[in-house]
Specification:
There is one protein chain. The protein has about 350 residues and is of the alpha+beta class. Helix content is about 35%, strand content about 20%. It has 10 helices and 14 strands. It has helices at about 1-10, 80-95, 115-130, 140-150, 205-215, 220-225, 230-240, 245-265, 275-290, 310-320; strands at about 15-20, 20-25, 45-50, 55-60, 70, 75, 100-105, 160-165, 180-185, 190-195, 295, 305, 325-330, 340. A 6-stranded mixed β-sheet has the order 6-5-7-4-1-14. It has a 4-stranded antiparallel β-sheet with strand order 2-3-8-9. The protein has a 4-stranded antiparallel β-sheet with strand order 11-12-10-13. About 50% of the residues are buried. The protein binds (3R)-3-hydroxy-3-methyl-5-(phosphonooxy)pentanoic acid (PMV). (3R)-3-hydroxy-3-methyl-5-(phosphonooxy)pentanoic acid binds near residues 28 and 151. The site of (3R)-3-hydroxy-3-methyl-5-(phosphonooxy)pentanoic acid has 14 residues, from α3 and α5.
Length: about 350
């Protein structure tokens, strides 16, 4: 091990990873008391997208005196602290202290409720695993990603993914306990997703701060936690049965519950804009007219329309006509994180 570490310390080590964002159908909002491992207080279930992509190259370089983050071609000092804090976890496992250059690009808006932290941290872990020869299992990669951003665990895998709460008494000191696993592939049920971009601005209250605010102040936080087990079991069953109609009702229920609870925090968290609400009505109108589609919304104003296979074009054209929707990004379901030299 020490000779391996010596080699790691002396050499420039680099690797590339590409990961897709994911969209939760059963939402994660709330952290458990284990803040060190960023353990979630609720289980969640998501679909991984294609089209949207984070591409990241990590270069551990002994000549660097500090970590450098280059986001979409520009040096970003504001986000560098969080990145260094998380690269320290990779360095700790490898037993090295070499500084790292992170070159990362998103082909979609960053930090605007489009899950850029999910794909970003999944790519960081996968690239770090390869660059530093850590030989982490898929499960360990999901756990390490989860410690960086709760939803990132789900972007290690493609298709339909869930994070189940795990027994905290058996938590690993490095990785913690909750992990993500795929329970159906993208091919199993090739749903389509239309993302209606309402604003490309970064959200004013990030998810970590928002979740803590809800835990401390929302009168609906406790009922939100109580309903989670039932929602997860039911959603997995509905995906496996490909029951679109019931999944639509359940997923909208999870989304609206999350936002109701967040809005009732003090001060209230209102992530929607007018166009978000117009799009919700348009999507429900489409569903009432027989088009298989439902909405979900994360910590930002963008609307995500989940469509039955083959209905993406129709839904995209309706969303594009809504005033305030700047553009619509059409996606299918995507695959696992990928790495290369
Ligand atoms: O992983 P975070 O800290 O960005 O939180 C994600 C929270 C939501 O996107 C609102 C819901 C979810 O499950 O993805």
């Amino acid at each position: 091990m020490s000779s391996t570490n010596d080699t790691l310390r002396a050499e420039v080590r680099t690797a590339f990873a590409a990961a897709h964002p994911n969209i939760a159908l059963i939402k994660y909002w709330g952290k458990s008391s284990d803040l060190t491992h960023n353990e979630p207080a609720v289980s969640s279930l998501s679909v991984t997208l294609d089209t949207l992509l984070t591409e990241t190259r990590l270069t551990f370089d002994p000549s660097l005196s500090e970590d450098v983050l280059i986001l979409n071609g520009v040096v970003d000092r504001k986000k560098q602290g969080r990145i260094s804090f998380n690269i320290d976890k990779l360095r700790h496992i490898a037993g090295v202290s070499t500084r790292c250059r992170v070159e990362t690009t998103n082909n979609f808006p960053t930090g605007a409720g489009l899950a850029s932290s999910a794909s970003g941290f999944a790519a960081l872990v996968a690239a770090g695993n390869r660059a530093l020869d850590l030989h982490l299992s898929g499960r360990q990669q999901t756990m390490l990603s989860r410690s960086m951003s709760g939803s990132a665990a789900r972007s290690i895998h493609g298709g339909f993914v869930k994070i189940a709460l795990a027994d905290s008494s058996t938590a690993d000191p490095v990785y913690g306990s909750a992990y993500a696993e795929q329970f159906a592939t993208a091919d199993y049920w090739p749903l389509e997703v239309c993302v209606g971009v309402v604003s490309e601005e970064e959200k004013s209250v990030g998810s970590t701060e928002g979740m803590e605010r809800s835990r401390e102040t929302s009168p609906y936080y406790s009922p939100w936690l109580d309903g989670n087990d039932k929602d997860i079991v039911e959603a997995e069953k509905l995906v496996l049965e490909k029951d679109f109609e019931k999944l639509a009702d359940l997923s909208e229920f999870s989304c609206l519950k999350m936002h109701a609870m967040a809005m009732a925090s003090q001060p209230g968290l209102v992530y929607w804009r007018g166009a978000t609400v117009e799009a919700m009505h348009a999507i429900r109108h489409l569903r009432a007219s027989g088009i298989p589609v439902f909405f979900t919304i994360d910590a930002g104003p963008q609307i995500k329309a989940i469509c039955g296979p083959g209905y993406g074009d129709k839904v995209a054209s309706v969303l594009s006509d809504i005033p305030g929707i700047q553009r619509v990004i059409q996606c299918g379901l995507g695959g696992d994180v990928r790495t290369a030299e």
